Here is the input.
Amino acid sequence: MCTKQRWYGLVMLAVIALGITTHGKDFMGDWRGTLKAPDGATRTVFAQVINWGKGEYQANILESIYTQPVPEKPLLVLRGKLDGQRVQFGDSQAAIAAGTFRGATAIGELDLQPYRLESPTLGLAAPAGAEMIIGGDKGLIGLRSPRRAGGVVDLNKSLAKSANCAAYLRNSLIVDAPCQALLRCGSDDGIVVFLNGEKVYEKAVPRPLTADEDRVELSLRAGENVLMLKVLQGGGDWSAQARVVDLQGRPLAGLRYRLQPEGVPMASDGAILAWDVSGPYTQAGKSGMALAVQAFAPESDPAGATWQLVENRQPSGERWKLLDDGTIELLPKGGSMVSNYEFGDGTLHVEFRTPVMFEARGQGRGNSGVYLQGRYEIQVLDSYGLAGKDNECGGIYQLGKPLVNMCLPPGQWQTYDVDFTAPRFDADGNKTANAMVTVRHNGVLIHDRLELPKATGGAMGKEAAKGPLALQDHGNPVQFRNVWFLPKP
Here is the structure.
């Protein structure tokens, strides 16, 4: 394990290798140089210059940056205004011009030059055995948008709109050899799942449709396997969706569906786009949820039931922009992205870049999030030069603030390297140990074996042994690239 000092050294090597660079016309970024005190003593200091938009700047003069111990407060805070090709800071003589930050201040004479810190793990190649989520030779892979689940069947449109009833959806899964598979489905309201005539799952509760809410393991035999969903209706909306993948959430090799819209290829996420549908079925005096145990014709006499073909050719939507270099950019209001792959213990590598939004403030300034297992959020935000709170970049909402604020200026690529231990559960589903996380932001340790006693706000569901990676849409065009997960052996 690398020590804190070694990681800091690696980061500084990245800085030295880059050499001295300018910050461009906006002047925002890190500076390093000397402060000559009134008594003539000289020491090394740093400055973090923040652009607040409309020509307003702030410079925090600090004894150190990107390392521990974190200074309790800056040595000096300067407020400045853009004046042509320079930034003049208040009543002092300090100014940024022509690539330098110089001048007299209340604590002495500044002489600073810009430098650019870069994470030592940028571009880190996925090791053997890693699951590529964004990047690799094939570009964007392994993601879906649950807001636009493929193959949703609106039963109020396909059948007569009704209440306190049930309908059946049927298709066949065809595989060449026996295998284990995973059914991910959601429904409005409840659902009962049958495989080859046997009930394998039931959730008879009123609820809205949430894509992939249910997780059902299937044991498939070689050849044809009849999958049937019984969708219960209390009232209002009435719909369902389903997809079949392998146990890690990836495409199931060799899977075919008996019913598939003509000319439409199999959906990459395994979404079922066609069904035989039968219904609606009712029984006097019984609510929709009570019909879960009532065997109607599709259960008792499938051949004698009346079926109609219903197709939804709309696959799962991609609500992001794919750039030429394989980077993806979140589309505002496009919805969060979720990996097809689900993971437990292992190591996650994420590269991200927040947009330049100088006039935005707080949570509206380059906001996104990396949700481990879709449940524990590591915040993504432009919080360059700020205090480093649990709701700022690198923070884990309500559970832990970063040991040091490692957020770089907006527009610069950054990294999270995460060692994750999933929560543990006994045979009855009771949690016996909390999840645990160690996080390095741009190569520097910011969380050290932090226990996560609960899911954070915005979680996709209850805690579990496995779950997907989720990249949060919070309305800002944050970019991601080179994202992979290496499971622990």
